[in-house]
Structure formats: structure tokens, C-alpha cells
Amino acid sequence: MGRPEDLAGWRAYAVALLFTLAAFLFRQEVGRLAGQPISLTLCGIAAVFASIWIAGLGPSLLAAALTSAWYIIDEGTANPAFWIRDGLYIVEAAAFCF
After folding, report:
1. 8-11 LR contacts (CB < 8 Å, sep 24+)
2. Burial grade of 4 (CB within 10 A; 0-12, 13-18, 19 or more)
3. pTM
4. Residue-wise pLDDT tens for the chain (98 aa)?
5. 3-state SS of the chain: helix, strand, coil percent to 5?
6. 3-state DSSP call for residue 38?
7. Residue-by-residue DSSP string for 37-96
């Protein structure tokens, strides 16, 4: 395991899902230990980068979609200022995939 050509089919998507889950759990645990949350953007983009590097384009788009949903759910959508920030994160995560 290490390059996109080594991961076939569903395994690549499972790896992207695991990277996203690991980023989520890492953020939760560090936030609990430190007493304040660490950057959601940093953790989400790390999951997308790891998915690009290991699993390839399709799985990295899955990671981008999952982290975007996580970002929107975690940050909320009540404030219009969040819409701009959420939109920029979605564009940024998707752009890194290409």
C-alpha cells in the first residue's frame, strides 16, 4: 500500500473513509486533552491530502465531501458569515483533489 495504483476499487474508498474518521477522532481527542478544539480546517484538509496521496482522485473527493459535511455540521449554518467560510472550505478541499 502506498500509491494509488496499489489500491483497487472499494479499498481506496475505505482508506479515504478511514483517513477522515482518523482526523475526526484525532480532533476530538486532542480537543478533550487540550481543553480547547484544534482547527477543523486543518484536520479536514489533512484527511483530504492523505487520501489524495494514498488513494487517488475519486477517494479524495469522497474525503473532501465528508469533511465538508463535517465542517458544515460542526460549525453550523445559522450565521451568514459561516456560509462564506464553509463555501471557501468546500472549494478549497475540492480544489486540492485536482
Report:
1. none
2. middle
3. 0.79
4. 455 455 668 899 999 999 999 999 999 999 899 888 888 888 889 999 999 998 888 999 999 999 888 877 876 666 777 778 778 888 888 888 88
5. 85, 0, 15
6. coil
7. PPPHHHHHHHHHHHHHHHH-HHHHHHHHHHHHHHHHHHH-SSSHHHHHHHHHHHHHHHHH
